[in-house]
Design goal:
There is one protein chain. This protein is mostly helical. It is about 40% helix and about 5% strand.
Length: about 425
Amino acid sequence: MNFVSRCTAAVAATVVIGTATPAVAAPPSPSPKVAIPDGLYGAADPTYDGVWRQSLSLLAQNEVGVDPADKAVAWLAGQQCANGAFPAFRADAGKPCAAKLAVDTNSTAVAVQALSTITSTYDSQVGKAVAWLKSVQNKDGGWGYSPGGASDANSTSLVIGALAQAGVTVPNLRKDGKSPVDALAKLALPCGGKDGGAFAYQPGKKGALTANADATAAAVLGAYGDTLTGNRQDDTDAPMSCAKAADDGLDTEAGDNGAVWLARTLAKDGYLKSVLPGAADQPDYGNTADAVVALATAGRNDQAAASLHWLEGHAAKWAEQGGPAAYAQLILAASVVRGGDARHFGGRDLVTLLNATGPTPKAINKLPPTATPSHSPKASDDNDGSLPVGWTVGGGLLLGALIGFALMFRGRKRQS
């Protein structure tokens, strides 16, 4: 989910810890209302995106061989509340989280992705965050932005990536018999109809599903169990059309189908467009970058490379205005596409530009353009399918769950 989309879901969130009030939002103020903390990336007001942009920045730096400053990682870990959840931002990490402080699944999941990817120093904090995410899983198996809010494709996919990276066997994680895979499957538009293979953000009135490019890019990664960094595949046999899911409750084709729809949607112009009521359609740079990551992860590298090339020629001003999160999205897109070099991106060094928005890194190891660090998930924990009392685990069919896990995570050799 890109920065604008997240702000639309997050700003002025009224959720307090443990409640289920949905969030409402407006774009953040361009001038900071709070002092910019030492260790944080970016100079804009962090009230609505501090944890998000910090996590993306750390993930992007890791992909290009940058070892971030300790205080940058410590700032992120220090945003966590005692119950394990993360808010979008809290100004004084030295005080306990106030009861009225809004926490959300997106901030928590992206922080888990970052912390569990780049260091083992904060494993205990990651464990607490994972426990909190499990505790707010919805009855349909998914997650909404706000704890207790209706499940959506973006939030569910972010949490899937976080849990998988932290070592949880996601298909085993069930609430009232439903897994995260089930929640995503309910948001996929069926093959054969208009926009078959795409994902909706949430069902509309009377349960109608409307294709959403942002949700589809997120759900492709979620279906494969990947984080926001993606994981490039070399598949030459990537399906070219939407395929009906096997009737096994796993819907393993969902990621492939979403990628087919994304590739088809991008084929005409090379980029996605924002659709805002009352406004002319504009290029959506952030969602295009996210789609590049999703397509490369699905093995659809020709379209991923073509859209990355378009971003190289058009996204510079957007990134400059967007700051660290925007630079990070472009770095992740460049890093996952073979030949994509974030240090020579349309004549700009995105790595240097991102580094300049935060504390000086400990080390900068210049990787070859086609090389990326390994970010394999940790080994699964012994009880990763277990839930607190009153929650259920998939019928005791361990073998079926393990097969589902293997299928969900592509059945292909993951590249490092």
